[in-house]
Design a protein that fits this description.
It is built from ten helices and 13 strands. A five-stranded mixed β-sheet has the order 2-1-3-10-4, with helices on both faces. Strands 7-6-8-5-9 form a five-stranded mixed β-sheet, with helices on both faces. A three-stranded antiparallel β-sheet has the order 11-12-13. The protein has three domains: 119 residues, D-Maltodextrin-Binding Protein, domain 2; 81 residues, Periplasmic binding protein-like II (D-Maltodextrin-Binding Protein, domain 2); 92 residues, Porphobilinogen deaminase, C-terminal domain (Double Stranded RNA Binding Domain). The model has no long low-confidence stretch (mean pLDDT 91). Strand 6, helix 5 and strand 7 form a beta-alpha-beta unit. It is of the alpha/beta class.
C-alpha cells in the first residue's frame, strides 16, 4: 500500500508528517509512505500579517486541492490552521493525542509577561494573542512577526523584540523547550482553536486510508477539538478575528472556555460551559451563542465590517 502525505515545507510541518509516517509504518510495516511538499498561500506571502492577507485556509487550501485531485492520499494539518468547514468530499479521519496546547513567551531577559518593561516590543502576528496581551498590558507594543519558528527566534535574539509569543506544541516538537521563558496559563492567553492538535484529512470515500489511520485517533482529543471547532464555526471565525477556544475532557465531562475580543484588547469577553462530552458540538455552538448575546456579536460585526471595507 502506498500513501502520499501532503505537507507544507516548513521544518515543523515536516517533523509532524514524519511522526505520522512512522506511526503508519508501526501499524502497517508494508506500507510505502512518501512525503509530498506543497507550498500554500500562507507560505508564499511572508511580508504581511495573516489578518491582512484575508481569506480562510491560508495554510491548507492548496493541500486540500491536492487531496481532491488525488495527487496525495493524506494531509497532516496543525488543527489551528484548518477552517471550521471542510470542502465537500474531505473528512478529518483521525486526531492523534494532543501536544501541549498552551502559548509560551520567549523573552530576552527570560521573564514572564508581567516582567516585561513598559513599551517592550512583543512579536506576534496573531490577533488572538495580541488582543489578550494588550488587555493585560496595554503599555506593551505589539509588532507583527511572521516566519517559521527558527526565523522568529533569530529576530528575537538579534534584538528586534524583547519577547515573542509562540505555541508550546511547535517548540516541543522542534526540540526547543529550553528556549521557553514562560508557559502561559489559559487565564493569561486562551489558545487558538485546535492548538497543539494534529488533524489527518483524507477523501471521505477512501475507506482504506481511513481504516489505516484509525489506530492513531485519540478520542479525548477528538471530542475536545470538535467542541472547539463548533464554537469557531458558529462565530464564523478566521485569522482576521481575535477568537480563542479551549476544551478538555475529564472522564465524561467536557469543559470548554471561549473568548472574543476587540482588536486592541480594550474589551475581552470570556465564558465557559460544562457538559457531557457526547454533546461536544452542541456545547461549542451553545457557548458561542452565549458570547454573542453577551456582546460578542457587536464586536464581530465591527471587525467583519471593517474587513469587508478593505
Amino acid at each position: 500500500m502506498k500513501i502520499r502525505i501532503g505537507t507544507r515545507g516548513s521544518k515543523l510541518a515536516i517533523v509532524q508528517c514524519e511522526w505520522v509516517r512512522d506511526r503508519i509504518r508501526e501499524h502497517n510495516p508494508s506500507a510505502e509512505v512518501e512525503l509530498v511538499r506543497i507550498k500554500t498561500k500562507g507560505d508564499k506571502i511572508l511580508d504581511s500579517p495573516l489578518s491582512k492577507i484575508g481569506g480562510k485556509g491560508l495554510f491548507v487550501k492548496e493541500i486540500e486541492e491536492a487531496l481532491l485531485e488525488k495527487r496525495i492520499d493524506l494531509a497532516v494539518h496543525s488543527m489551528k490552521d484548518v477552517p471550521a468547514e471542510l470542502p465537500e468530499g474531505l473528512t478529518l479521519a483521525a486526531f492523534p493525542e494532543r501536544e501541549n496546547p498552551h502559548d509560551v513567551l520567549v523573552s530576552i531577559d527570560d521573564v514572564p509577561l508581567t516582567g516585561l518593561s513598559r513599551g517592550a516590543r512583543v512579536g506576534t502576528s496573531s490577533l488572538r494573542r495580541a488582543a489578550q496581551v494588550l488587555h493585560q498590558r496595554p503599555d506593551l507594543e505589539i509588532v507583527p512577526l511572521r516566519g517559521n519558528v527558527d526565523t522568529r527566534l533569530k529576530k528575537l535574539h538579534r534584538g528586534d523584540f524583547e519577547a515573542v509569543i509562540l505555541a508550546a506544541a511547535g517548540m516541543t516538537r522542534l526540540g526547543l523547550k529550553d528556549e521557553i521563558s514562560h508557559i502561559m496559563t489559559t487565564r493569561e492567553i486562551l489558545p487558538a482553536i485546535g492548538q497543539g492538535a494534529l488533524g489527518l484529512e483524507v477523501r471521505s470515500d477512501d475507506r482504506a486510508v481511513i481504516d489505516l489511520l484509525s489506530p492513531m485517533n485519540h478520542p479525548p482529543t477528538e471530542v475536545a477539538v470538535r467542541a472547539e471547532r463548533a464554537f469557531l464555526k458558529r462565530l464564523e471565525g478566521g485569522c482576521q478575528v481575535p477568537i480563542a477556544g479551549f476544551a478538555r475532557l475529564n472522564g465524561d465531562e467536557l469543559f470548554l472556555e471561549g473568548m472574543v475580543a476587540e482588536l486592541d484588547g480594550s474589551v475581552l469577553l470570556r465564558d465557559e460551559i460544562r457538559g457531557n462530552g457526547e454533546k461536544a458540538e452542541e456545547m461549542g455552538a451553545g457557548l458561542a451563542e452565549r458570547l454573542i448575546s453577551g456582546g460578542a456579536g457587536e464586536i464581530l460585526g465591527r471587525i467583519y465590517g471593517r474587513d469587508e471595507e478593505r
